[in-house]
Amino acid sequence: MRKLAMATAAAAFGAMLAAPAMAQDGPFAGGRVEALAGYDNVQDGGDGSSEGTSGFTYGGLVGYDIQRGNTVFGLEGEVTDATTSTRSYNALAAGDRFSVEAGRDFYLGGRIGAVISPQAMVYAKGGYTNARVESRYTTGATGATETIDKVNLDGFRVGAGLEYKLSPTSFIKGEYRYSHYGNVDNVDIDLDRHQLMAGIGIRF
């Protein structure tokens, strides 16, 4: 998966560098900005019985595409946040609460698409993701909250989706993506993240 993610991003980047200026023309070419929202699920990849924890994710994306015939190559960067969290009570003392929350997520990668009609394109994507996880402990006696830790997780992401044009400059899209985070401070955490995203964007 990691090799696939890096290969997708590298192929898109290389094609964009090699393409002449005239190859940028096409209904799916040019810069774009998007608003994103969707379903987020985080789980322990090492436990096949784990259902994980789910929440809502939202954010924005900027990207640039070129088109050669029916093939589209793009680069994109994304920033999202999430409501995904898990909580346990009476962890260390009566009335206390321990919570782990997903935070901001940075993504940088590439995509390769195939135009299947004048309005629609299917694509695959891959790249690098850096997600923050924050843990908190709240005592039962005083209600005081102490931030225990904020950890940044490095990983890779792969995904696929469909983009559909509403007009020459606007579009919507649906996308599934999978992210994996391997280790923190040489500790293998084996964390998997599954997301179903919807987006609306403007191309310019």
UniProtKB/TrEMBL annotation:
CC annotations in GO = membrane
Keyword annotations of the record? Membrane, Signal
The reply to whether Metal-binding figures as a keyword in the UniProt entry is no
- Which region is the signal sequence? 1-23
Is Protease a UniProt keyword of this protein? Answer: no
Task: Outline the extent of the Outer membrane protein beta-barrel domain.
Answer: 10-204
> Cross-referenced SUPFAM superfamilies, in alphabetical order?
OMPA-like
Question: What family is this?
Answer: Belongs to the Omp25/RopB family.
Name recorded for this polypeptide: Porin family protein
Which organism's genome codes for this protein?
A: Sphingomonas adhaesiva
Q: Recite the lineage of the species.
A: Bacteria, Pseudomonadati, Pseudomonadota, Alphaproteobacteria, Sphingomonadales
